[in-house]
Amino acid sequence: MSAPHASQGFGLLELLVTLLLTSTALLGMIAMQGQAIRHVLAATQQQKAIFLANDLLEQFAGDPAWMAAHGFAKLPAAACGSGALQPMAQRLACWAQAVESELPGARALEDQFHLCHSTTPGLCNGGSLLELQLAWHASGAGCTARGTSGARPICHYRLRTAP
Q1: CB distance 143 to 103 below 8 Å
Q2: For the chain, which terminal residue's Cβ has fewer other Cβ atoms within 10 angstroms, N or C?
């Protein structure tokens, strides 16, 4: 009697199982890549907000009395002119224009911006610390607060410093 002939290579069932496992792994990697891109976008927007806040405070560091007297309760109008030696009010308008171009939806959230003296974060109550708050619509992940403007999350960056 002869021994049964052993099959060599993969059968159809093994091939289908391998294909299923490989495609599941690839789909998982693609999903992780998409999530990573959203987090990078959120981090980029946060970094832009940090830069803009520091930029405003640096511009007015030479005249803290002007900043204290000219705080704002919403994003100022963006009417930026040209010229190297700009008055303080025009610098503020140029800064507002940069905010509008760098942070998505900033103009729509203008009432969530402020520059004021504060003792409690988020409240303009005349304290000893200078507080600057920026807001924008999140394009990526990372912001948890939902606003009334729909399903897009609203991100805030608040900088508090001694004048």
Answers
A1: no
A2: N
Q: Which residues contact 73 (CB under 8 A, 6 or more apart)?
A: 111, 113, 114, 116, 124
Tokens of 71: 């705080």
SS3 labels along the chain:
CCCCCCCCCCCHHHHHHHHHHHHHHHHHHHHHHHHHHHHHHHHHHHHHHHHHHHHHHHHCCCCHHHHHHCCECCCCCCCCCCCCCCCHHHHHHHHHHHHHHHCCCCHHHHHHCEEEEECCCCCCCCCCEEEEEEEEECCCCCCCCECCCCCCEEEEEEEEECC
| pLDDT over threshold 90, residue 49 | yes
Structure tokens at 68: 């204290």
Taking the chain, what is the end-to-end CA distance rounded to the nearest angstrom? 99
Phi, psi of 127 (to 5 degrees): -80, -165
HSE toward the beta carbon, residue 140, CA cutoff 13 A? 16
Return the structure tokens found at 64. 């803290």
Which pLDDT band holds residue 148 (cuts at 50, 70, 90)?
very low
